[in-house]
Amino acid sequence: MFAACAAIALAGCAELERQGQLFTTPPPSTRPAASTPRAENRSTVQHKELVEQFGGEYDAPAAERYLNAILAKLAEASGTPGQAAYRVTILNTPVVNAFALPSGNLYATRGLLALAGDASEAAAVMAHEIAHVTLRHSALRAEREREAAVISQAATVIQNRQKGEEVRSSQRLSVASFSRQQELDADAAGVKVIARAGFDPYGASRFLTALGRSSDLRAALYGKKKSLDFDIMSTHPSTPERVAKAIAAAREIGAPGIGVRDRAGYLEAINGVAFGDDPMEGYVRGRKFIHPRLRFTFTAPEDFLLENSSEAVFGVREADNEALRLDSVRNPSYDSLEAYVASGWVDGLLASSVRRMEINGLPAVTAVARAGEWNFRLAVIQAGDLVYRMIFAARQLTDDAERRFMESIKSFRRLSSDEAYEAHALKLAIVAAGPGDTIDTIAARMIVPNRPTEYFLLLNGLSAGDALTPGEHYKIVTE
């Protein structure tokens, strides 16, 4: 059912942001891989699954060599005999994330490479993830969750339902608290290791600060309410708490200014790395969405901000009272588009509103639906063996909203072969500031969907009002 279309669309980017909550550890086997065929096979399967889940491997030889050199230094400083020799795999996704497996595989997304500012920040992320493995956090967390499940099941059987729910809530709180402590423990362990490896121990707090700023910018763009309150049911501590504790751990080692940062070397290593969406999986340029592999494009209504994901394209209007979603289904088993629209995948369909039309040479059906306080203008468009579903949601479907939604629906069209061939990714470029350059002059060279100045500040760890240093190198996003 699609009655929750508005809620899904307005919160659509929340899932992407959740994926970017560093540093997360995926659910691999909780036991270190032994040198047996079975363990090696398990490791290979885990590797393939993770690579597939995060967009495949990204080929960036210079960045890979640089990160592996950092890992070699971390291994020497770890003080853990027999610890696996880690090697990095860069994942082809703009999501900011990293994780490690007991097998010695460490994964970093290209979104993380863009956000990190220097070698010490990258080292802090990788040391944190290795600490999760060294401290056996996956195994301990899994054991606590099993205990919680057993206790809550017993409480449900033996006690009344209300009491059982109280016990389940208590157990969920215990598991969440344990998970937060794991994150803080991994932070502290990581800070110590990067310091012993010769890196700036304050790199961890700088990266966590950048992560918080990234979340704030996403919240500002997509209208989600921001809260600094500590979420007791969260599996991760709040970013402000982690920053404070990371700074405290670094201060135990020494005052700011110690250790290697190697900003220049790091920027050189990531120069040219792709930024944002993989163009073959669809990408956003302003209000326009282009998908070269599936060969289609459409333009969102005025004032909409678009976000691509593996599931759908989501959009919200900055006023936060309109939303959109576009996805596709393959070969729905219905005799006609009208029958598919009426098949029950959307609630509140007004049967009298169903209209067949042609959109840029493609057969289509449009309709209106109402559910609760939301009104929906929707269209299904047949293109080959795919049916594209465009759903627009508004609290009030005014004449102006109807006009804008229909203009967007009618903008859907196939791409020509030349248009699909010309698609290319955005990329990071490292530029030197000239004597007269300011934040505004260099940010004007940024090619990002929204708010170039804010993104320039975020990527370079700067604040509004900072002065650029002539000759210093900075990250920008370009074509």
Give an overview in words:
Its EC number is 3.4.24.-. It comes from Methylocystis borbori. Keywords: Hydrolase, Metal-binding, Metalloprotease, Protease, Zinc. With 479 residues, the protein is α+β, with helices and mostly antiparallel strands. The protein has 3 domains: 31-274, no CATH class; 282-418, Mog1/PsbP, alpha/beta/alpha sandwich (Protein Transport Mog1p, Chain A); 426-478, Roll (Membrane-bound Lytic Murein Transglycosylase D, Chain A). The chain has 16 helices and 17 strands. The chain has helices at 5-10, 12-19, 37-53, 61-77, 110-115, 119-134, 137-158, 161-196, 203-222, 239-251, 263-270, 337-341, 399-410, 417-421, 439-443, 452-459, and strands spanning 87-91, 98-100, 105-109, 274-275, 283-285, 288-291, 296-299, 304-308, 313-317, 322-330, 355-359, 362-371, 374-383, 386-394, 413-414, 426-432, 473-478. The protein has a 7-stranded antiparallel β-sheet with strand order 8-9-10-14-13-12-11. A hairpin with a 2-residue loop joins strand 11 (355-359) and strand 12. Helix 4 (61-77) packs across helix 11 (263-270) and helix 9 runs antiparallel to helix 16. The longest helix has 36 residues, at 161-196. The two termini are 40 Å apart.
